[in-house]
Every structure is written in structure tokens, then in C-alpha cells.
Specification:
By secondary structure, the protein is of the alpha+beta class. It has a single domain, classed as 2-Layer Sandwich (HIT family, subunit A), CATH 3.30.428. The chain is built from three helices and five strands; from the N terminus they run H-E-E-E-H-H-E-E. Strands 1-2-3-5-4 form a five-stranded antiparallel sheet, covered by helices on one side. It is globular, with a radius of gyration of 14 Å. The relative contact order is 0.21. It binds guanosine-5'-monophosphate.
């Protein structure tokens, strides 16, 4: 899938839409999700134009890849999430219900998050 420069996170990166920012460096931006699903729900995005983890892992530079991981860890520590724990999750493609076509890592925390995934009905 080609990157759409008009996706909502591209607009946030350009400052055309506001966000509640928690972290920014040269390569990544983190902000609170507009519809939080847990008491803490933050999104970490690379500043580069990457549709998904598939795209990012295949084509991003080593500096971008490293910085993205560092940003996630930094945000979690900065928000005090390490002691009680947190979950990171990135949807990739249709079956995962990825809605925004710019790579984003969800950070969920602030409550017991239960099992990792709802088992499929058999
Ligand atoms: P996905 O389903 O693509 O993994 O998650 C997209 C996430 O982006 C959702 O949790 C949704 O609430 C969040 N989101 C969508 N539009 C906006 C927005 O304009 N601002 C912020 N902060 N989050 C958004």
C-alpha cells in the first residue's frame, strides 16, 4: 500500500491537527490516543512516512528503527508505567483492523490488561 500523506497522523506531524504530546525527538512523536481504551493509552509514531510495521521494518534506516524502540521505552519510563507494566501493540493491515495508515505503536497501561488477546470462538 502506498503511503497517503493526508492520513490523520501525517497531519498531526505537520501540525495541521493538534495532539496531546508526551514525547518528541528527531525521529518519533508520542501523544495520547483521542479515544483511550485504557487509563493510559499513548501512540508512538515514527516521523518518517511509513504505512505499517511491515513497511518500516523493511525500509527504515537503522537510526529510525533504533530511535523508534528507544522512544517507546522512554515514554513508558517517563509515564511511570514500568513498575506495574504495560502492553505495546501495533496493528498491521486489514485483519488487524489497522485504521490509520501511518505506523503507530499503542502503549496501553493503567489497569490490569487481562490476557493478551481474546481467543477465537471454536
Ligand atoms: P489502529 O486501529 O489504526 O491501530 O489505531 C488507530 C488509533 O488512532 C485509534 O486508537 C484511534 O483512537 C486513534 N486516533 C484516530 N484519530 C486520532 C486523532 O486525530 N488523534 C489522536 N490522538 N488519536 C487518533
Amino acid at each position: 500500500m502506498a503511503y497517503d500523506p493526508d492520513n490523520i497522523f501525517a497531519k498531526i506531524l505537520r501540525g495541521e491537527i493538534p495532539c496531546n504530546k508526551v514525547f518528541e525527538d528527531d525521529y518519533a512523536l508520542a501523544f495520547h490516543d483521542i479515544q483511550p481504551q485504557t487509563p493510559v493509552h499513548v501512540l508512538v509514531i515514527p516521523k518518517g512516512a511509513y504505512v505499517s510495521m511491515d513497511d518500516f521494518s523493511a525500509t527504515a534506516s537503522d537510526a529510525e528503527l533504533a530511535s523508534f524502540s528507544r522512544a517507546i521505552g522512554h515514554v513508558a519510563r517517563d509515564l511511570g508505567l514500568v513498575e506495574n507494566g504495560y502492553r505495546i501493540l501495533a496493528n498491521n493491515g486489514e485483519d488487524s483492523h489497522q485504521e490509520v495508515q501511518h505506523l503507530h505503536m499503542h502503549i496501553f497501561a493503567g489497569q490490569n490488561l487481562g490476557r493478551m488477546i481474546k481467543p477465537i470462538d471454536k
